[in-house]
Fold this sequence. Notes:
The protein is an alpha/beta fold. It has helices at residues 60-74, 81-90, 113-120, 134-142, 179-187, 207-221, 226-253, 258-263, 267-272, 278-290, 299-308; strands at 19-26, 29-36, 43-47, 50-53, 103-107, 125-130, 148-153, 164-170, 190-201, 311-319, 323-330. An 11-stranded mixed sheet has the order 1-2-3-4-7-6-5-8-9-11-10, with helices on both faces. A hairpin with a 2-residue loop joins strand 1 and strand 2 (29-36). The chain is globular, with a radius of gyration of 20 Å. Bound molecules: zinc ion. Zinc ion (ZN) binds next to loops.
Amino acid sequence: MKRRLLLYLACQKCRCPFEAVANREEGEEILEGWLACPGCQERFPVTRGIPRFLPRELSAAKQATAAAFGYEWTHYAELTEADRAEFLDWIKPLDPAAFAGRVVLDAGCGKGRHLFLSAQFAARDVIGIDLSDAVEAAYQNTRHLPNAHVIQADIYNLPLLAPFDLAYSIGVLHHLPDPKAGFLSVARHLKPGGRISIWVYGKEGNRWIEQFVDPIRIHGTSRLPKFVTRAISLLLALPLYLALKLVYGPAGRRPRLARLKRALPYADYLCAISGYSFAENFWNVFDHLVAPTAFYIRREEVQDWFAAAQLEQTEITPRNNNSWRGTGLRSPHSG
Ligand SMILES: [Zn+2]
């Protein structure tokens, strides 16, 4: 961790700033040591460059989700040009200018690709939090960037002050045991006038997943050893890849195939991902089969989250007709 990360951290219990004790350092980077709270004497370790705020008691559901995604993301550590376009699509209508000079929170940073992009978009500082072992990959991918920081922490119990101009959570809240509580926790760390941007699975447009894929995931693939789920994902990704390249891709691109596109099931989403590489398809399938928790969320529920957080200028838009993007501002006059 870089020492300047201390500017943004606070003890979850007594809100005191931490004091850092370094046992091993490299320049500004504390590799091994402790963060100590002078108020309640609580101490949190810094290991392999990452401050760890893991709750002592972590529910079985959260542990399983963290383990599932930690597995995926420590094995998938490349950053591509397509990631940039996709990130900007997830956070529409925000653009790179929304990051410049801002303090940014990446709530559920996984292996850190959005963290990396936020840092490239010239955020003053961007802090990625994740509960899973994917933080190891996130840290390795971003430690050379002076404005990027990674902490391992629970989204419900963030060891952070509320300095954020922008907080985003992409594809994370629907995997939490209580998605709304996760949203409210992130929103609490916005400063007055700060913006939140989220993307979640929609209830609308995902009935077939709920009917056919979810039972397999819940009773089968999320409980199997990961290498078995990988093998199953590989078997499913192969015909999916062929369908995307041979049918959905052309149908999405060529205006004279518009009738075909209308006849295809789930066309908006599958045409949109038809450019994915085989590896991206594989991990997408794996993602849907491995998560122990996944909620599909109605537009009104998303609206309710924003209302409950008393956010202003809320904008909720569909993405690929099967998910929701939402953004809103904390009132500039809120205390
Ligand atoms: Zn404390």
